[in-house]
Amino acid sequence: MKIHTSNAWILDYLILSLCWGTSFLMMREATLSFGPFLCAWLRVSIAAVVLVPYIIRRGEMQTLLKNWRKMVIAGLLSCGIPFSCYFYALSSLSTGLSSILNATTPMFGALIAWVWLREKPKPLRILGLILGFIGISCLILNASQPGELHNSQHVVSILACLVATFCYGLGANYTQKFMREFSPLLNATGCLLGASVALLIPAWMDLPSEWPSLGSTVAIVLSGLFSTALAYALFFRIIASIGAARAMTITYLVSVIATGLGLYVLDESITLFMVLSAMLVLFGTALSSGLIKSA
């Protein structure tokens, strides 16, 4: 599939940043009543139910079923594992810190492309990888609040976010390598449907003992409709337009939106050390993904 470079993708990029920027608030609300696996399954399943009729109407359902192995793998990497990790992390982390860690996705994407796809980075990109990992280490050591380093759940939640962003990077590279011949909508639907099937048993084991609150129910439905169904259709269209590496840089804008909403809506706190560490992560990621280039 040929990658196009027109500016038509910019509107998709901005809409997607809003969909994913607000998703952290909805995920935080959903975790109040649902477990992480059930949250992830509901999110991908709602989105799949919305998108499957479009695939059937376009006559692409047979192609999806024929390539079900690719869809399940891409689904686990692109949404199944990451969503589960983030729903777990947001039960203890702030939306701001979670979204900043999410911005490491392009850095992991560049590292995976280097190791797996043999896309050897230039020295500036290698410097970016080093700076990014230093920034991540500072965030883990600081754990966003003084004294929380000894909170094992907090540190594990940070590591869960990093597992999620690693999977995001791996999933985007996998899609570009093995699923280029499919339409963006087919890729989005296949990934979501594959993740839904893969998460079915963990979700069943994660059923709540009490009826969920109205707020959590509304949050998970909105997350499935807008932050997943619409968002993934846009994301795979952006990958088709500008490539996986550039598409993943949307996490920068997402982190700004999510952090701002967390400060304004949830009255979350943020430390100077966290800001400086986040700037190092973002700068390193910008270098490693090629967003900043040498003259």
Which secondary structure elements does this structure contain, and how are they paired or packed?
Elements: H1 9-30, H2 36-57, H3 61-66, H4 68-89, H5 95-102, H6 105-115, H7 123-142, H8 152-178, H9 184-198, H10 200-205, H11 214-242, H12 244-247, H13 250-265, H14 272-288
Can you walk through the features of this model?
There is one protein chain. With 295 residues, the chain is mostly helical. The chain has helices at 9-30, 36-57, 61-66, 68-89, 95-102, 105-115, 123-142, 152-178, 184-198, 200-205, 214-242, 244-247, 250-265, 272-288. The radius of gyration is 18 Å and the shape is globular. The protein starts with 8 loop residues before the first helix and ends in a 7-residue tail after the last helix. Residues 1-5 have low confidence and may be disordered.
Tally of extended strands?
A: 0
pLDDT averaged over residues? 86
Shape: globular
Distance between the termini: 30 Å
Brief write-up:
With about 300 residues, the chain is mainly alpha-helical.
Descriptive tags:
mainly alpha, 14 helices, disordered N terminus
